[in-house]
Fold this sequence. Notes:
By secondary structure, this protein is an alpha/beta fold. The chain has helices at 15-29, 57-61, 70-79, 96-109, 115-118, 136-150, 165-181, 183-187; strands spanning 2-7, 33-38, 82-89, 122-129, 153-161.
Amino acid sequence: MQLLVVNGSRSTKGQTASAAAGLVEGARRAGCSVEEAYLPTLNIEHCRQCEDNGWGLCMKEARCVIEDDFAGLVEKIRAADLVVFATPVYFGDLSESMKAFTDRLRRICIHGASKDRIGGKPVVGICVAGGSGGGATHCALSLDTVLTICGFNVVDVAPAKRQNLEMKQDVLRTVGEWFARRPAAKQE
């Protein structure tokens, strides 16, 4: 089993990475191999809304015209058995890098050709809020919404706050192990 973690945080040692590490630890215990991608370190541009109608090749061919790291990461998502999207929470929403990536992802996923290897793929979301932690649940709803629009099988979205991060890491270890061992994951 191959697990891909798409992380919207720049820090490999911050709170979002710590939360994702809990899930990864559980998945590895269940025998998964893991690859991690940190969106802020990749060249992922914002959607250009190419044509006057706001669309482009994304609508016609389920691909993006922008030549950056987006297409390569989408291929890694397609090749993975399980995917985790982890994002820090900024202003009650996804990080800017996660927003830029998912804005483009949803455009290629809602039209036929791209659904063939993303539609139904099991995914877990993790949203980690620093500060007061007040935006974690709102961000979790945003992430769940965009992943559902993309056609993923959203099996869990975990909001976390810096105040409960240690407890959430324990929960996410369990989620990771369960995610990797569940029968439906092995059939997809």
